[in-house]
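Replying to the earlier thread about multi-chain prediction with a worked example.

Input:
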Amino acid sequence: DAGVTQSPTHLIKTRGQQVTLRCSPKSGHDTVSWYQQALGQGPQFIFQYYEEEERQRGNFPDRFSGHQFPNYSSELNVNALLLGDSALYLCASSSGTGLSQETQYFGPGTRLLVL
Amino acid sequence: ILNVEQSPQSLHVQEGDSTNFTCSFPSSNFYALHWYRWETAKSPEALFVMTLNGDEKKKGRISATLNTKEGYSYLYIKGSQPEDSATYLCAFKGGTSYGKLTFGQGTILTVHP
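Result:
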Protein backbone atom coordinates (compact mmCIF):
# COMPACT_ATOMS: atom_id res chain seq x y z
CA ASP A 1 0.00 0.00 0.00
CA ALA A 2 1.60 3.25 -1.22
CA GLY A 3 -0.07 5.48 1.35
CA VAL A 4 -0.82 9.12 0.58
CA THR A 5 1.50 10.59 -2.03
CA GLN A 6 2.03 14.23 -2.97
CA SER A 7 3.85 15.97 -5.80
CA PRO A 8 6.01 17.87 -6.19
CA THR A 9 8.00 17.69 -2.95
CA HIS A 10 9.35 21.22 -3.32
CA LEU A 11 8.39 24.20 -5.45
CA ILE A 12 9.65 27.75 -5.88
CA LYS A 13 7.38 30.39 -7.41
CA THR A 14 7.31 34.18 -7.63
CA ARG A 15 4.59 36.53 -6.44
CA GLY A 16 1.59 36.68 -8.73
CA GLN A 17 2.14 33.25 -10.24
CA GLN A 18 -0.18 30.30 -9.97
CA VAL A 19 0.62 26.85 -8.59
CA THR A 20 -0.96 23.40 -8.69
CA LEU A 21 -0.20 20.75 -6.09
CA ARG A 22 -1.27 17.12 -6.44
CA CYS A 23 -2.33 14.38 -4.06
CA SER A 24 -3.12 10.68 -4.44
CA PRO A 25 -5.05 9.21 -1.54
CA LYS A 26 -4.39 5.97 0.26
CA SER A 27 -5.89 2.96 -1.49
CA GLY A 28 -9.58 2.58 -0.60
CA HIS A 29 -10.01 6.19 0.54
CA ASP A 30 -12.48 8.52 -1.15
CA THR A 31 -12.06 11.75 0.83
CA VAL A 32 -9.20 14.23 0.54
CA SER A 33 -8.47 17.17 2.82
CA TRP A 34 -5.85 19.89 2.33
CA TYR A 35 -3.99 21.73 5.09
CA GLN A 36 -1.47 24.57 5.12
CA GLN A 37 1.27 24.59 7.71
CA ALA A 38 3.10 27.87 8.14
CA LEU A 39 6.32 27.98 10.14
CA GLY A 40 5.79 27.54 13.87
CA GLN A 41 2.09 26.76 13.57
CA GLY A 42 -0.06 23.66 13.42
CA PRO A 43 -1.67 22.67 10.12
CA GLN A 44 -4.65 24.86 9.11
CA PHE A 45 -7.60 23.31 7.26
CA ILE A 46 -8.09 24.63 3.72
CA PHE A 47 -10.89 22.40 2.38
CA GLN A 48 -12.13 18.85 1.99
CA TYR A 49 -13.29 17.04 -1.16
CA TYR A 50 -15.71 14.12 -1.27
CA GLU A 51 -17.42 12.70 -4.37
CA GLU A 52 -15.68 15.34 -6.49
CA GLU A 53 -17.32 18.19 -4.55
CA GLU A 54 -15.92 20.64 -2.03
CA ARG A 55 -17.70 19.55 1.12
CA GLN A 56 -16.21 21.89 3.71
CA ARG A 57 -13.97 24.93 3.55
CA GLY A 58 -11.75 26.64 6.07
CA ASN A 59 -10.96 30.33 6.34
CA PHE A 60 -8.98 30.72 3.13
CA PRO A 61 -9.58 33.19 0.27
CA ASP A 62 -11.00 32.22 -3.11
CA ARG A 63 -7.47 32.24 -4.53
CA PHE A 64 -7.32 28.74 -3.07
CA SER A 65 -9.32 26.28 -5.11
CA GLY A 66 -9.33 22.56 -5.62
CA HIS A 67 -10.55 19.65 -7.58
CA GLN A 68 -11.15 15.97 -7.03
CA PHE A 69 -11.03 13.49 -9.89
CA PRO A 70 -13.10 10.30 -10.36
CA ASN A 71 -10.15 8.23 -9.12
CA TYR A 72 -10.29 10.30 -5.86
CA SER A 73 -6.96 12.05 -6.46
CA SER A 74 -7.01 15.78 -5.87
CA GLU A 75 -5.37 19.05 -6.84
CA LEU A 76 -4.92 22.24 -4.88
CA ASN A 77 -4.59 25.41 -6.95
CA VAL A 78 -3.42 28.73 -5.61
CA ASN A 79 -3.71 31.83 -7.83
CA ALA A 80 -2.00 35.21 -7.51
CA LEU A 81 0.60 33.89 -5.08
CA LEU A 82 1.59 36.07 -2.13
CA LEU A 83 4.76 35.84 -0.05
CA GLY A 84 2.54 34.67 2.84
CA ASP A 85 1.52 31.58 0.88
CA SER A 86 4.97 30.11 1.52
CA ALA A 87 4.26 27.05 3.63
CA LEU A 88 4.12 23.27 3.73
CA TYR A 89 0.93 22.00 2.10
CA LEU A 90 -0.33 18.70 3.45
CA CYS A 91 -2.87 16.38 1.94
CA ALA A 92 -4.80 13.87 4.05
CA SER A 93 -7.08 11.07 2.96
CA SER A 94 -9.81 9.20 4.77
CA SER A 95 -12.73 6.89 4.08
CA GLY A 96 -16.36 7.00 5.04
CA THR A 97 -18.76 9.87 5.26
CA GLY A 98 -16.50 12.20 7.18
CA LEU A 99 -19.00 12.25 10.01
CA SER A 100 -17.47 9.26 11.71
CA GLN A 101 -14.30 9.25 13.74
CA GLU A 102 -12.08 7.82 11.06
CA THR A 103 -8.38 8.64 10.96
CA GLN A 104 -7.00 11.06 8.40
CA TYR A 105 -3.78 9.76 6.87
CA PHE A 106 -1.30 12.40 5.78
CA GLY A 107 1.15 12.63 2.93
CA PRO A 108 4.67 14.06 3.33
CA GLY A 109 3.64 17.47 2.03
CA THR A 110 4.74 19.92 -0.67
CA ARG A 111 7.03 22.73 0.45
CA LEU A 112 6.12 25.93 -1.45
CA LEU A 113 8.39 28.95 -1.40
CA VAL A 114 7.10 32.20 -2.90
CA LEU A 115 9.76 34.81 -3.74
CA ILE B 1 -12.64 30.86 16.60
CA LEU B 2 -11.70 27.41 17.82
CA ASN B 3 -8.67 27.35 20.12
CA VAL B 4 -6.57 24.23 20.49
CA GLU B 5 -3.53 24.78 22.70
CA GLN B 6 -0.62 22.47 23.38
CA SER B 7 1.94 22.77 26.13
CA PRO B 8 4.79 22.88 26.47
CA GLN B 9 5.95 24.14 23.07
CA SER B 10 9.15 22.13 23.37
CA LEU B 11 10.65 19.62 25.74
CA HIS B 12 14.13 18.15 26.16
CA VAL B 13 14.44 14.92 28.15
CA GLN B 14 17.09 12.27 28.73
CA GLU B 15 16.78 8.75 27.40
CA GLY B 16 14.79 6.68 29.86
CA ASP B 17 12.82 9.61 31.29
CA SER B 18 9.05 9.50 31.23
CA THR B 19 7.29 12.59 29.98
CA ASN B 20 3.85 14.00 29.29
CA PHE B 21 2.29 16.93 27.52
CA THR B 22 -1.10 18.55 27.30
CA CYS B 23 -3.68 19.42 24.67
CA SER B 24 -6.52 21.81 25.58
CA PHE B 25 -9.59 22.13 23.39
CA PRO B 26 -13.18 23.46 23.52
CA SER B 27 -15.35 21.34 25.83
CA SER B 28 -18.50 22.06 23.84
CA ASN B 29 -19.53 20.35 20.60
CA PHE B 30 -16.81 17.72 21.03
CA TYR B 31 -16.66 14.83 18.57
CA ALA B 32 -13.12 13.46 18.54
CA LEU B 33 -9.54 14.25 19.52
CA HIS B 34 -6.68 13.01 17.37
CA TRP B 35 -3.01 12.65 18.29
CA TYR B 36 -0.29 12.54 15.65
CA ARG B 37 3.49 12.04 15.79
CA TRP B 38 5.47 13.91 13.14
CA GLU B 39 9.11 13.10 12.58
CA THR B 40 11.23 15.45 10.49
CA ALA B 41 10.99 14.84 6.73
CA LYS B 42 8.22 12.26 7.17
CA SER B 43 4.41 12.26 7.06
CA PRO B 44 2.47 12.87 10.26
CA GLU B 45 1.66 9.46 11.75
CA ALA B 46 -1.69 8.85 13.43
CA LEU B 47 -1.33 7.69 17.04
CA PHE B 48 -4.85 7.77 18.53
CA VAL B 49 -8.40 8.85 17.85
CA MET B 50 -10.24 9.43 21.12
CA THR B 51 -13.96 9.98 21.37
CA LEU B 52 -15.32 9.15 24.83
CA ASN B 53 -14.81 11.05 28.07
CA GLY B 54 -12.45 9.04 30.25
CA ASP B 55 -11.02 7.21 27.24
CA GLU B 56 -7.52 5.87 27.67
CA LYS B 57 -5.56 4.53 24.70
CA LYS B 58 -2.16 2.86 24.60
CA LYS B 59 0.34 2.03 21.86
CA GLY B 60 3.56 0.52 23.15
CA ARG B 61 5.16 3.05 25.53
CA ILE B 62 2.79 5.84 24.50
CA SER B 63 -0.60 6.36 26.09
CA ALA B 64 -3.21 9.10 26.10
CA THR B 65 -6.16 10.12 28.26
CA LEU B 66 -9.18 12.25 27.46
CA ASN B 67 -11.36 14.58 29.55
CA THR B 68 -14.07 16.07 27.35
CA LYS B 69 -15.91 17.80 30.21
CA GLU B 70 -12.96 20.03 31.02
CA GLY B 71 -11.47 19.98 27.53
CA TYR B 72 -8.04 18.42 27.83
CA SER B 73 -6.04 15.37 26.79
CA TYR B 74 -2.69 14.16 28.08
CA LEU B 75 -0.11 12.22 26.08
CA TYR B 76 2.38 10.15 28.09
CA ILE B 77 5.59 8.55 26.93
CA LYS B 78 7.15 6.02 29.29
CA GLY B 79 10.91 5.46 29.15
CA SER B 80 11.61 7.90 26.29
CA GLN B 81 13.97 6.75 23.56
CA PRO B 82 15.85 8.92 21.01
CA GLU B 83 13.54 7.59 18.28
CA ASP B 84 10.61 9.22 20.13
CA SER B 85 12.03 12.62 19.15
CA ALA B 86 9.34 14.26 17.03
CA THR B 87 6.63 16.89 17.04
CA TYR B 88 3.44 15.67 18.70
CA LEU B 89 0.26 17.26 17.40
CA CYS B 90 -3.26 17.07 18.72
CA ALA B 91 -6.29 17.89 16.57
CA PHE B 92 -9.88 18.60 17.61
CA LYS B 93 -12.89 17.58 15.57
CA GLY B 94 -16.21 19.25 16.34
CA GLY B 95 -19.58 17.58 16.01
CA THR B 96 -20.72 19.80 13.17
CA SER B 97 -17.64 19.50 11.00
CA TYR B 98 -17.43 16.87 8.30
CA GLY B 99 -13.72 16.36 8.33
CA LYS B 100 -12.09 19.54 9.50
CA LEU B 101 -9.40 18.95 12.08
CA THR B 102 -8.28 21.95 14.12
CA PHE B 103 -4.68 21.43 15.17
CA GLY B 104 -2.66 22.73 18.07
CA GLN B 105 0.77 24.16 17.34
CA GLY B 106 2.47 20.97 18.51
CA THR B 107 4.96 19.96 21.20
CA ILE B 108 8.51 19.36 19.95
CA LEU B 109 10.09 16.52 21.93
CA THR B 110 13.85 15.92 21.87
CA VAL B 111 15.18 12.83 23.64
CA HIS B 112 18.92 12.98 24.33
CA PRO B 113 20.92 9.70 24.48
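The two ends of chain B are 40 Å apart (CA to CA).

Feel free to reuse this layout for your own posts.
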